[in-house]
Specification:
Two copies of one chain form a homodimer. The mean pLDDT of chain A is 93. In chain A, a hairpin with a 7-residue loop joins strand 2 and strand 3. By secondary structure, the first copy, chain A, is mostly helical. Chain A has one domain: Orthogonal Bundle (Arc Repressor Mutant, subunit A), CATH 1.10.10.10. The first copy, chain A, contains five helices and three strands; from the N terminus they run H-H-E-H-H-E-E-H. Chain A binds a DNA duplex (30 and 30 nucleotides) through helix 4.
Chain lengths: 116, 116
DNA sequence: CGAATTCGTTTCGGTCCCGTATCATTAAGC
DNA sequence: GCTTAATGATACGGGACCGAAACGAATTCG
């Protein structure tokens, strides 16, 4: 059975989750940054700048800058690939894993209290 | 019956929706902007700068700036309150309503194709 | 009336992000 | 070896945003 959501419930869920994030002073990430962060944490590695740029259909500097910012927030880290030293491998961090895990819990909690 | 989502499904849903928005060249809104936009479209009017600032627990300039940007995108509009001309009433627009409606449909569509 | 309060905006110095173009480094092809 | 290609980062001018403080306009209070 697929997840059945009506549009008004979907929008209400999105609102409640975003409100919760803002009110709890979480980093104010853009949709691009969230797409990158969740892709790194949900899709199987390895992750490269080029791969992420293709997956999001954006240019490489967009990925580089997002990694700069999220790296400063300790949500991701970068390391040179020893097999092909042109590559940069993007890796998860403990802080990032905790952030993503907590974020998932927030969504679940808000989904549970949605009106029908 | 409440909406039952497991954390991994919730995160996957968020990722798929953000990926869809980015890939479709939608405006790259931040969580703050989305929280403001959805509050305007889901909560009953009237909406004021002060009211939104309190609801999000942010300062008023944050709201003013977000309204500047989303106003340029035609997603919301501002009008002086004739009863108390200090107030600015934030109103919905046709473009904004279409954007929000489409966004809700994207969430629903991605929820339906979630793996169990 | 004048003073105090409220509302939204603006200013300030600073940071982040944009798209485009170019860069250095590394690897692969000949 | 030398040239070509690929990868990620950087420079550029411009725009958006930050928090804190000050601002003008409108209202309320005394």
């Amino acid at each position: 059975m697929p997840i059945a959501l009506r549009p008004i419930q979907a929008l209400r869920l999105w609102q409640q989750v975003c409100l919760a994030e803002v009110r709890n002073d979480m980093p104010d990430l853009s949709e691009r940054q969230i797409a990158i962060l969740l892709t790194i944490y949900l899709d199987p590695p390895p992750h490269t700048v080029r791969g992420l740029a293709e997956r999001l259909k954006v240019t490489k500097p967009v990925i580089t800058r997002a990694l700069d910012t999220m790296g400063a927030l300790k949500l991701v880290s970068r390391h040179r690939d020893d097999h092909d030293r042109r590559n940069v491998l993007i890796r998860r961090t403990v802080e990032g894993a905790l952030f993503v895990e907590r974020f998932g819990d927030v969504i679940v909690a808000r989904a549970e209290e949605l009106p029908l």
